[in-house]
Prior knowledge:
The chain is α/β, with parallel strands linked by helices. It contains 7 helices and 8 strands; from the N terminus they run βαβαββαβαβααβαβ.
Amino acid sequence: xxxxxxxxxxxxxxxxxxxxxxxxxxxxxxxxxxxxxxxxxxxxxxxxxxxxxxxxxxxxxxxxxxxxxxxxxxxxxxxxxxxxxxxxxxxxxxxxxxxxxxxxxxxxxxxxxxxxxxxxxxxxxxxxxxxxxxxxxxxxxxxxxxxxxxxxxxxxxxxxxxxxxxxxxxxxxxxxxxxxxxxxxxxxxxxx
Length: 192
C-alpha cells in the first residue's frame, strides 16, 4: 500500500484530534504509529489512553508552557494564561526552546527514515515552523528522509505554503464559531 504525506492545518479546532483518530484507526489493524508531539508535554487527556494502545508510541518534545511571538495574542488572553505562556520578540524564540525542539527534529528524522513505524504523526510541527523553532530546510529534510512506506502527518496552524505544496493530502480546519470567543476555557477531555 502506498504511503502519503498529510497536513492538517487551519485556525479551526480538530487538527490533533483528527491525527489521533487516524492513529487509533491504524492501531486497530496493527499498524505501528509514532505520535511525536512538538511544543507539548504529557499533560493532555489522550495520553492516558494512547499509552495503553501498544501499536501507538507517544513522545512529547516541549515544555509545560506555551510560547507566542509578541503581538500574536491579545493582552487579556495573555493575562488569563499568566505564567503558562512566554512571549518572545518575533523571529527570536527562546534558545532553550529551540534546543528542545531540535531533539524532536532529530527523532522525527530517525522515525520517518527507518521504517520502524507505519505512520509518523508530527503534531504541532507546523507551529514549530511558524514560530521559527525549526527552519524550512529541517522540514524539507524530513520529507527527503522519509521511507516511502511511512505515512507522515504534519499538524498545527500556520502550515507554510511549501509544505502544503509537497503534501498529498491537505485538510484546512476553518474556524466558524468557537466558545473560546465567549470566554470558555479549555475543557478536560474535550480540548485538554
